[in-house]
């Protein structure tokens, strides 16, 4: 019984910290589906589903990023993207320099405000992952927030 409880506790700890394990969520085969899944996970405050849709051309960020760092980044994203509703603003343009990335704008509605957020999605295997989200500040502020799955975000607070 002790060994079973220890094994269960270790498994829960690994899942809770990211654990570097593979996601059980299939990678969407269309970029718009990846955005919809990601935004629904944001709305539901589900960091595990967000982690299963966020990464780079290397794959899911949860497979190569430190679990604590991943959780921190996704928490920041969740706070900034929390919304009452959203819409994907067409079209999904091919990102400059590659045919394996698409750029989209997502307009969120929150407390009467309707900011438009740029998303970059990358192709991974046969599907698409949310790779970069530019979280621009309100007009008139010089702060820049950018959260990426492949590099350390530049965050200026002032």
Properties at a glance:
158 residues, alpha+beta, two-stranded antiparallel sheet, 4 helices, 28% strand, globular, disordered N terminus, disordered C terminus
Task: Give a written overview of the molecule.
With about 160 residues, the protein is of the alpha+beta class. Helix content is about 30%, strand content about 30%. It contains 4 helices and 7 strands. The strands form 2 sheets. Strands 3-4-5-6-7 form a 5-stranded antiparallel sheet, covered by helices on one side. Strands 1-2 form a two-stranded antiparallel ribbon. A hairpin with a 2-residue loop joins strand 5 and strand 6.
Name the poorly predicted regions. Answer: 1-21, 141-146, 150-158
Please give the order of strands in the largest beta sheet. Answer: 3-4-5-6-7
Strand percentage lies at 25-35%
Cα shape: globular
Helix and strand content put the structural class at alpha+beta
The count of strands amounts to 7
Q: In DSSP terms, counting alpha (H) and pi (I) runs of 4 or more, how many helices? A: 4
CA gyration radius, whole angstroms: 17 Å
How widely separated are the two ends? 54 Å
Measured as a percent range, the helix fraction is: 25-40%
Q: Report the biggest beta sheet as strand number plus sense, adding barrel if it closes.
A: 5 strands, antiparallel
Secondary-structure element order, N to C: HHHEEHEEEEE
In round numbers, the mean pLDDT is 77
């Amino acid at each position: 019984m002790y060994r079973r409880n220890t094994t269960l506790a270790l498994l829960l700890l690994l899942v809770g910290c990211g654990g570097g394990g593979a996601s059980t969520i299939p990678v969407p085969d269309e970029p718009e589906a990846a955005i919809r899944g990601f935004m629904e996970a944001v709305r539901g405050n589900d960091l595990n589903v967000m982690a299963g849709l966020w990464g780079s051309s290397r794959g899911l960020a949860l497979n190569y990023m430190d679990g604590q760092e991943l959780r921190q980044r996704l928490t920041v994203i969740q706070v900034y993207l929390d919304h009452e509703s959203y819409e994907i603003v067409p079209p999904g343009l091919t990102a400059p320099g590659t045919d394996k990335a698409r750029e989209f704008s997502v307009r969120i509605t929150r407390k009467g405000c309707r900011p438009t957020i740029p998303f970059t999605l990358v192709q991974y295997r046969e599907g698409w992952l949310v790779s970069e989200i530019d979280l621009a500040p309100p007009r008139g502020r010089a702060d820049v927030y950018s959260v990426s799955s492949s590099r350390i975000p530049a965050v200026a607070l002032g």
